[in-house]
Amino acid sequence: MIKKSSTMKTQPKADAPAAEVTPHVTTPVVGIGASAGGLAAFEAFFSGMPDDVASGLAFVLVQHLAPDHKSLLTEIIRRYTSMQVFEVEDGMKVEPNCAYIIPPNRDMAYLDGKLQLIEPAAPRGQRMPIDFFFRSLALGLNEVAIGVVLSGTGSDGTLGIRAIKKAGGMVIAQTPASCEYDGMPRNAIATGLVDYDLPPSEMAAQIFTYVARTVSSPLHTAPAPKLINDDALHTIFIMLHARTGHDFSQYKPSTIQRRIERRMALNQIATQDDYIRYLQQNATETDALFRDLLIGVTGFFRDPDAFTALEKEVIPRLFANKPSGSLVRIWSTGCSSGEEAYSFAILMQEHLERVRERYVVQIFATDIDSNAIATARSGLYPASIAEDISPERLARFFTAEADGNVYRIHKTIRDMLVFSEQNVIKDPPFSKLDCIVCRNLLIYMGGDLQRKLIPLFHYALNPGGFLFLGTSETVGDFGDLFTTIDRKLKLYQRKDTLHDRHHVAMGRFLPPRPTLETPYPRSAIKEIDPAKLPLRELTEQALLKQFAPAGVLVNARGDILYFHGRTGQYLEPSPGEAGVSNILKMAREGLRRGLSTTLHKAHSTGKTHRSKGLRIKSNSGFISVNITTCPVTAGSIAHGFPMYLVILEAAPQSDRDTAQTAGPAETGGHIDGLPINRDVDIEILRQELLAKEEYLQTAIEELETSNEELKSSNEEMQAINEELQSSNEELETSKEELQSVNEELATVNAELQNKLADLSQTNNDMSNLLSGTGIATVFVDLQLRLLRFTPAATRIINLIQVDIGRPVGHIASNMVGYTSMVADVQSVLETLVPKELDVRTEEGKWYTMRIQPYRTIENVIEGAVITFVDITEMKKSHELLQEAHDQLRLVGVVRDSQDAIAALNMRGDIISWNPSAQRLFGWSEEEALTMNIQEMTAEENREHELETIRSVAAGSMVQYETIRLNKEGQSIPILLTATFLVNNSGSIYAMAVTQRVTQGRIQA
Length: 1004
What we know:
The protein is an alpha/beta fold. It is built from 31 helices and 38 strands. A hairpin with a 5-residue loop joins strand 14 and strand 15. Helix 8 packs parallel to helix 10.
């Protein structure tokens, strides 16, 4: 297998000219669906696949992914397989030995060897991407399609595996015990369609074995040769018939052949003889083969165009000629799990709501698969049916269960249907039907069986009744029995022809249906001359009219279904409103008790009962009548309720005289022309008394029977109620079903856990780097919650490990005078412009705080980074430099000022002297610094100068005019401004004196 795959893949393009004759090759595709917990299952699946085996298969992974989260699945799967792994792009071609991953927020389909991406139509939480892909896989690949259902919650994939099995493909589910979430595998296994339930690590080997046996080469080029001959098929049919009671000998051989070959491949059996022995030794394999032969792919409103035509053209005509309150009967054959029958019922209910009239709709839905019937009866379907049903109908006719993954059909729709297990081939059909739905059942049957069923459907339909077939089915050679309403959608209407009876009666004169043990040749069908049958029927009818007694066909209550012969002398219409005719109400005087008694006995015992010599009053007097009541078994089965034939005939003379005794009798005149015999009268009265006692006893028995039936019904209802309560409790306490969003979160969480494991070493390195630099660093997210921090940050902000996740604004800091951290970080996140400022801690240390956005590799902002760099020494140096700078600047101001400026201490000593003072007063700076201010003040002003110094020391600024003496002793009038000087501690240590010659002096 490996060599073929390699050769085929590397063939040179020089052979291209022969492309027209090159067979079309198809790569077998394994569709793998998973949801929550699927990541671990994917890893186990690919880890169990041998690296040195070129399987020739393509693997497509479909997982429930968060629509707004980038998937890491592609990167993760690459670690566990040597195959090429791709995230699917629209229109990507499927190649062997490759794995393809569905991207987030997309549905995916397989079409013509390519993967097509589609924008999801369903809202989040209702998407079924696995079902969607599996269905497309089944349509595109048939028996080469393989479906795998892995861990997950809900029921996604359940409908998809039905499609794959229908196409003849293979289905595997993960064993629930090995799942993190077992909802999806359990729902898949519950369908009975799963070929294997295995741990993920063992699946690949089983798939390789299956493909090697079912496909002629790794690239499927031609169907496998026929493995089963006719004799072996006949033997298998006998074994199936003995085990299940169903005969498949008249089904299409090609379909049976494919199913048997598939079972042989699944069980790794090479020859037909080995498989027959395997069937003989394993009854479970016989059951599995039976289930495979009965695979029914159905769905709600499948083929929407057909149901639209049904709704518009057929259903209104079913009620057109029926009065309000009438019964409409429909038969859905091969109903499988009931979706199609329920679809028909929904259309009927919608029509009844539109016309606003009351009718009784009864739909008989039958199938030979007991498991499918059980599913249909429950009325529970997976949430994936939302893809086939409009939201309006889903809301009106379905109720979501508590877990949200299952829908239950409404009781109003459920009450329309009667589900039963029936074999349409051998069991009696229903009759008096208004419509028969038989879709995709005939395509599995051989031509002989189809030719038998079509006339049977014609017989079961009322005149003008409708037949609804599948898109690949027709009425064949019986076009004279049906009128075509829509040839494309296969809608037919029953014809009433002169040869109807001939077609119906024909089955009675044909040899018995062939069995497995006694088949008959086809030539046996032609032994009957159809042209002679109508004459024979006419003869039989004439004889019946001449010699058959009067009879009435009734049900168990006595309601009359059919009159035969002349019954007027025994029955007459009862007075009052006309309604359903009842034989007990129509019985003439003297007949009712006998009718009631024999009918009750026939119903209770199931045997024929007679009553002889009843005297009833007719128009011409009293007559004696014999009554015979017998059950009609065949009719009861066909119509679904018990039926009885009441035969009324005049009593012969021997029965009339049974009441007369042999002894002498006294006569006393005549009454109504009959002689009066007192002994006879007494005997007649005695018989009437006995009859009344018997009638009373019968009534009592009927009452007791009714009471017992009511008790039994009550017990059954109680049992059903208990079962429903138990089911409700189980559903409420179930842990396996989760919402779709939870599945997506679980998937994302699993991916992130793998990613975190890969990044753990990098994070450790970064943590050591940050710790080693001594730079305090704090990381916050977009919501300003603390993500992580370095140890150095705890000296600035009061952080401990449990603060991670808290908003940074809730954490106390040691920074003095800085309270706008939250606003600054938020501003940086909004503007993406970094911010930098200096802050001081309570310890007196200074830090440069830098706030900048946190950018990912993909240039996505996911928060902010706050760093603190210690600049205490730098700050001190800066302050010293600033102080020196300020002093130099002040010196320059004082030096360059045109006013005489001097600084005095609190004793009046001159401590500063600028050049202008030297020019004004004549003393140099060196001379002035040794002087006291009093030496420049006239003696009469010295006391005033001392007061001025005290005022300045008290915190006042003083401005006044005074007289100063220069070096030559000359008086100079000046305007003096004095102010105090304060040191860092806030104490006054000196005062500054600005002296300017007054204007008057200058002018002088």
